[in-house]
Amino acid sequence: MEKTTKGTLYVLIAMMLFSTGGLFIKLINANAFTITFGRAIIAGLIFLPMIQWKKIKISKYYVGLVVSYCYLCMMFVLTTKITTAANAIILQCTAPLWLYLFYVVKGKKITKRDLIPRLFILLGIILILSAADGGNPWGDLLALTNGIAYAAVQYLLDKDYPISDASIVGLNNLWLSLIILLTISSQLDFTGISVYGWLGLVFLGVFQIGIAYLFLSGGVRLISPLKASILSLAEPILNPIFVFFFVGETPSFLSLIGFAIILMGIGLTMVPPKTHLSEINE
Question: What are the distances in angstroms from CA 146 to CA 55, 88, 90, 91, 282?
Fold first, then answer.
């Protein structure tokens, strides 16, 4: 199997595993914080042997990464519980809009090519938030803030760290588990989880975060980041599809239009300039 085909397959497998999050979060009979903790501690333990303890150095970027990652994970589970899975994932995927605005504030020149896709994303957000049925207004707003957190994670992951990617994901999940234990341990309740619920938690920790991350990191090394980001659009598409078929949750018609517009905007942000097309295809 050639390198490009193998990398594409790896990223698609990762996106398929990531997209099962909405389904299992809906099915597990536990509150959002219990699921978040259970998933994180399992993922942290899976990556524990890979952590390069002697190379760990605390920096402002790494602290920011831990904070944004913890918020991202907690809010994704919470918003998936209180609004539709489709709204939760698609509003989280508005990260390109917030990242763009961040660079504009830092002095990036606004161009027509950059602005138009972000306007599509903004229009989609407005439609979803104005939908009268299907979702939960507070859940949708929290999911929107999760898009900001996702943008922060993307920005901070681009920084240089002395430890490996596997170390980062292991440590981030251990930090998340510790933060939950220290702040909201009273909210943790595993007593009502069925055997199937425990199996779901194990799946989320081992496959939906752990194995998925290994496939993603391996795939990105084999294909260009642009191609990987385009393939990542499979997650916000597959997530609500899984929930629809197995749980029966259906977004409102207005939300579906908003999803389509946001996906179009995200796709447009990933189209390279014509001058770079030949470089990307190499």
Answer: 30, 9, 10, 8, 35
pTM of the model: 0.79
Contact 147, 265 (CB under 8 A): no
Tell me the per-residue pLDDT of 97-123, one tens digit each, with 9 for 90 and over: 788 788 888 887 777 777 888 788 888
Q: Among 265, 281, 7, which Cα is nearest to 124's?
A: 265
